[in-house]
Amino acid sequence: MEKTRVLIDTNVLIKLFRGNKTVEKHLKSIGNGNIIVSDITIIEMLVGCTSVNKRKDFEEQLKAYGKAIVDKDIIEKTKTLIRRYAPINEKPIQIPDMIIASNAIWENIELLTYNKKDFEFIKELKFHKFSK
Q1: Cβ proximity of 41 and 100 under 8 Å
Q2: Does the model's pTM come out above 0.70?
Q3: Which CATH number among 3.40.50.1010, 3.30.360.10, 3.40.50.1000, 3.40.50.10280 corresponds to the domain 6-118?
Q4: Among residues 58, 65, 61, which one has the least CA distance to residue 30?
Q5: Residue 132 has pLDDT above 90, yes or no
Q6: What is the pLDDT of residue 89?
Protein backbone atom coordinates (compact mmCIF):
# COMPACT_ATOMS: atom_id res chain seq x y z
CA MET A 1 0.00 0.00 0.00
CA GLU A 2 1.36 3.39 -1.03
CA LYS A 3 1.65 6.01 1.70
CA THR A 4 -0.06 9.37 1.35
CA ARG A 5 2.04 12.33 0.28
CA VAL A 6 1.62 15.22 2.69
CA LEU A 7 2.39 18.93 2.44
CA ILE A 8 3.52 20.20 5.83
CA ASP A 9 2.66 23.68 7.02
CA THR A 10 5.24 26.04 8.51
CA ASN A 11 3.97 25.51 12.06
CA VAL A 12 4.68 21.77 11.78
CA LEU A 13 8.27 22.40 10.68
CA ILE A 14 8.76 24.89 13.51
CA LYS A 15 7.68 22.27 16.06
CA LEU A 16 9.92 19.67 14.40
CA PHE A 17 13.00 21.90 14.49
CA ARG A 18 12.29 22.81 18.10
CA GLY A 19 12.57 19.12 18.96
CA ASN A 20 8.92 18.14 19.34
CA LYS A 21 9.08 14.33 19.58
CA THR A 22 5.40 13.85 18.70
CA VAL A 23 5.85 15.69 15.40
CA GLU A 24 9.11 13.87 14.74
CA LYS A 25 7.44 10.49 15.31
CA HIS A 26 4.47 11.35 13.10
CA LEU A 27 6.62 12.62 10.23
CA LYS A 28 8.76 9.51 10.51
CA SER A 29 5.61 7.39 10.12
CA ILE A 30 4.76 9.32 6.92
CA GLY A 31 8.29 8.86 5.56
CA ASN A 32 10.63 11.56 4.27
CA GLY A 33 9.88 10.65 0.66
CA ASN A 34 6.20 11.43 1.21
CA ILE A 35 6.73 14.79 2.92
CA ILE A 36 6.50 17.88 0.75
CA VAL A 37 7.44 21.44 1.74
CA SER A 38 6.19 24.52 -0.12
CA ASP A 39 8.57 27.25 -1.29
CA ILE A 40 6.51 29.60 0.91
CA THR A 41 7.16 27.48 4.00
CA ILE A 42 10.86 27.47 3.16
CA ILE A 43 10.85 31.26 2.89
CA GLU A 44 8.95 31.63 6.17
CA MET A 45 11.43 29.31 7.90
CA LEU A 46 14.45 31.14 6.47
CA VAL A 47 13.08 34.43 7.77
CA GLY A 48 12.74 32.85 11.21
CA CYS A 49 16.31 31.51 11.34
CA THR A 50 18.10 33.64 13.89
CA SER A 51 21.65 32.66 12.96
CA VAL A 52 23.69 31.42 10.02
CA ASN A 53 24.14 28.06 11.77
CA LYS A 54 20.39 27.61 12.25
CA ARG A 55 19.83 28.44 8.59
CA LYS A 56 22.46 25.93 7.51
CA ASP A 57 20.97 23.25 9.78
CA PHE A 58 17.50 23.95 8.41
CA GLU A 59 18.65 23.81 4.78
CA GLU A 60 20.51 20.56 5.43
CA GLN A 61 17.48 18.92 7.06
CA LEU A 62 15.24 20.20 4.29
CA LYS A 63 17.10 18.05 1.74
CA ALA A 64 15.24 15.00 3.09
CA TYR A 65 11.88 16.29 1.83
CA GLY A 66 10.23 16.94 -1.50
CA LYS A 67 9.52 20.47 -2.61
CA ALA A 68 6.31 22.09 -3.86
CA ILE A 69 7.38 24.88 -6.17
CA VAL A 70 5.47 28.12 -6.41
CA ASP A 71 5.13 28.76 -10.11
CA LYS A 72 2.64 30.63 -12.31
CA ASP A 73 0.05 27.84 -11.96
CA ILE A 74 0.18 28.08 -8.16
CA ILE A 75 -0.09 31.86 -8.31
CA GLU A 76 -3.17 31.57 -10.56
CA LYS A 77 -4.70 28.98 -8.21
CA THR A 78 -3.98 31.30 -5.27
CA LYS A 79 -5.73 34.20 -7.00
CA THR A 80 -8.73 31.95 -7.68
CA LEU A 81 -8.93 30.92 -4.01
CA ILE A 82 -8.63 34.52 -2.84
CA ARG A 83 -11.39 35.65 -5.22
CA ARG A 84 -13.59 32.80 -4.01
CA TYR A 85 -13.00 33.02 -0.26
CA ALA A 86 -11.81 36.51 0.71
CA PRO A 87 -15.26 38.11 0.40
CA ILE A 88 -16.92 35.50 2.62
CA ASN A 89 -14.22 34.84 5.21
CA GLU A 90 -14.70 36.34 8.68
CA LYS A 91 -11.05 37.27 9.17
CA PRO A 92 -8.43 38.53 6.72
CA ILE A 93 -6.93 35.82 4.54
CA GLN A 94 -3.18 35.40 4.91
CA ILE A 95 -1.42 35.28 1.54
CA PRO A 96 1.24 32.72 2.59
CA ASP A 97 -1.52 30.39 3.84
CA MET A 98 -3.39 30.74 0.57
CA ILE A 99 -0.27 29.88 -1.42
CA ILE A 100 0.39 26.83 0.78
CA ALA A 101 -3.24 25.74 0.33
CA SER A 102 -2.91 26.22 -3.43
CA ASN A 103 0.20 24.02 -3.45
CA ALA A 104 -1.67 21.23 -1.65
CA ILE A 105 -4.72 21.48 -3.91
CA TRP A 106 -2.65 21.68 -7.10
CA GLU A 107 -0.53 18.66 -6.09
CA ASN A 108 -3.67 16.83 -4.89
CA ILE A 109 -2.08 16.09 -1.53
CA GLU A 110 -3.16 16.51 2.07
CA LEU A 111 -2.08 19.42 4.26
CA LEU A 112 -0.67 18.75 7.72
CA THR A 113 -1.07 21.80 9.96
CA TYR A 114 -1.57 22.75 13.58
CA ASN A 115 -3.61 25.77 12.48
CA LYS A 116 -6.51 24.13 10.68
CA LYS A 117 -8.67 27.18 11.44
CA ASP A 118 -6.51 29.19 9.01
CA PHE A 119 -7.53 26.84 6.19
CA GLU A 120 -10.81 25.11 7.06
CA PHE A 121 -12.96 27.44 4.95
CA ILE A 122 -11.23 26.19 1.78
CA LYS A 123 -13.55 23.43 0.58
CA GLU A 124 -11.11 21.98 -1.96
CA LEU A 125 -8.40 21.37 0.64
CA LYS A 126 -7.85 17.95 2.24
CA PHE A 127 -6.29 17.69 5.69
CA HIS A 128 -3.95 15.05 7.04
CA LYS A 129 -4.63 13.98 10.62
CA PHE A 130 -1.91 13.56 13.19
CA SER A 131 -1.63 9.99 14.42
CA LYS A 132 -2.59 9.48 18.06
Answers
A1: yes
A2: yes
A3: 3.40.50.1010
A4: 65
A5: no
A6: 73
